[in-house]
Amino acid sequence: MKEKLIDIGVNLMHRSFHEDREQVVARAEEVGVSPLILTGTSLKNSDEAARYAGRFPGKLFTTAGIHPHDTKNCQAHTVEKLRKLASLPQVVAIGECGLDYNRDFSPRDVQKQWFEEQIRLACELQLPLFLHERDAHYEFVRMLKPYLPRLNKAVVHCFTGSLQELQVYLNMGFHIGITGWICDERRGKHLAEIVKRIPLDRLMIETDAPFLTPRDLAVKPSEGRNEPAFLPHIMKKVAACLGRSVEETTEATTKTAQEFFGI
Questions:
Q1: What is the pLDDT of residue 212?
Q2: Of 203, 196, 179, nearest in space to 251 by CA
Q3: Residue 210 contacts residue 164 (beta carbons within 8 Å)
Q4: 128 Cβ contact partners less than 8 Å away, ≥ 6 residues apart
Q5: pTM (predicted TM-score)
C-alpha cells in the first residue's frame, strides 16, 4: 500500500475550485494524498470549510481563523464565532493567523490586535496555531513569545524565510510547513539548502493550493492552478534536498502531521 501523504494547507473553498471541488479531493486521494487540511482564512471561509469538511469525516479537516489580510473585517463577535467553529470535530487548529507586512491589506495595528486574540483563543482551547508571517518576523516573534508556556503547538505555514528566522522558530518549538516554493529555481534556492536543518518530527508539507504551483512540474496545469494531487511532486523535491528516500520522508512527515493535528 502506498504511504499516505497529508497536505496540511489547502485553500479548497477558493473560487477556482468551485466547479470541481470533489474531483480535486478524489484526484488527491488517487495519488495517496489524504487526508487534506483545509485552511480557514476568514469567518465566512472558515465556516464554509468546516461545513464542507464535515461531509467527509476522516478525509477532510480544517482550521478556523482570520488571515491578517482579512482582519480589517473583524467585529466584536469574531472570536466567539471562531470558538464555536473550533468545537466541531473536523476543526483541528486556529488560523491561518499572523502578520503580513508585505501587502498590508489590513492596518498593522488591526493585524496585531486580531493576531493576539487568536493566539489567546488557541491557548484557551489548547488547539494548535496555523501561522502566517510575511516581512514581519521581529514583531511576530515578539508577540508569540509571552504565550509559549501556554501554547499547545504551532506551525509556521508556507515558510520561505532565512536560515536565521528558521532557527528562531525551531528554538521556539514551532513546526515548519514547506510548500512548492522549494521547487522554484529562482526564489526557492535558499529553501532547498536550509530545509535539511528542520528535524523530521517538525517538518510538514503542503501545497497551499490553488497558489504556489511548483514551477518545475513536467506538465503544467491549465490556468496554472495548484492542487493537492501535486503534493507527491513537492515531496520528491523535499526528500532529495534532505538526502533521504521519498518513502522515509513521507512516513515521517505524515506521522508528524498526524501527531500535530491529532488526526
A1: 94
A2: 203
A3: no
A4: 92, 93, 94, 122, 152, 153, 154, 155, 260, 261
A5: 0.96
Give the integer Cα–Cα distance in Å for 151 and 251: 26
Name the amino acid, one letter, at 20: D
The residue behind cell 495519488 is 31
pLDDT at 108: 97
pLDDT band at 2 (very low <50, low <70, confident <90, very high): low
Residue ranges and CATH numbers for the domains of the chain are: 5-261 (3.20.20.140)
> How far apart are the C-alpha atoms of 96 and 129, rounded to whole Å?
8
Nine cell digits for residue 261: 493535528
What are 190-202's pLDDT values in tens digits? 999 999 999 999 9
Query: Phi and psi for 161 in degrees, rounded to 5?
Result: -80, -165
Look up cell 526564489; give the residue.
187
